[in-house]
Amino acid sequence: MTLQELIKLKEKSFKYFNDEDALIAVKNNGYALQEVQTQTPKICLAAVKDEGRALKYVNKQTPEICLAAVECDPLALKYVEHQTPEICLAAVEQNGIVLQYVRNQTPEVCLAAVKENNEALQYVFNKTPEICLEAVKKRATVNFINLDTLKEQSDMVDLGNGILISKESILSLIKKSLNNL
């Protein structure tokens, strides 16, 4: 059955199509997956490769399908049921802001997110010196570092969780960042 024939069958639900027809439909519009009653891994993979957020309609997610979904559209991470570091890394390397959907943040994933987009710093739960310095290097707005709540200890600044960084290091990076504007 051709795509034109499928389009002519407006009244007919995709759930009655065979696998071949369903595959044609999802390759042309990944969201058609929501109407496919019998989902196969091949059909689901084709759907998320066309439209990553069609992952929302996948009945049985696999790591392969989830990875393909976030590679197509990093915002699909929102719908990944079982997030792995590999899937999360693939998503944040394309769009750091999707860090907000990462359930188990690792330093590697957070650093990759901030490197891709310094505004991702606002979604980092554990702001290590390395992550904060990367954000400052990338001209992150200082608001996300929350300087008002930092505790001073001699010439060191407490970033929380017992992480200390020298004021000189912060100032030096901010000055370098401003000079590069």
Task: Walk me through what this model shows.
α2 (19-28) packs parallel to α3. The protein has helices at 3-8, 19-28, 41-50, 63-72, 85-94, 107-116, 129-137, 167-179, and strands spanning 151-153, 156-158, 164-166. Strands 1-2-3 form a three-stranded antiparallel beta sheet. The longest helix has 13 residues, at 167-179. The protein contains eight helices and three strands; from the N terminus they run αααααααβββα. It has 181 residues and is mainly alpha-helical. It has a domain at 1-68. The model is unreliable at 147-154 (pLDDT under 50).
Give me the secondary-structure topology.
Blueprint: H1 3-8, H2 19-28, H3 41-50, H4 63-72, H5 85-94, H6 107-116, H7 129-137, E1 151-153, E2 156-158, E3 164-166, H8 167-179
Antiparallel strand pairs: 1-2, 2-3
Features:
181 residues, mainly alpha, three-stranded antiparallel sheet, 8 helices, 3 strands
**Termini gap:** 58 Å
User: What's the helix-strand series?
Assistant: HHHHHHHEEEH
Mean pLDDT: 81
Structural category is mainly alpha
Number of strands: 3
Largest sheet: 3 strands, antiparallel
Strand order of the largest sheet: 1-2-3
Helical percentage: 40-55%
Question: What global shape is seen?
Answer: elongated
Strand content: under 5%
| Rg for CA atoms | 22 Å
Explain briefly what this protein structure is.
The protein has helices at 3-8, 19-28, 41-50, 63-72, 85-94, 107-116, 129-137, 167-179; strands spanning 151-153, 156-158, 164-166.
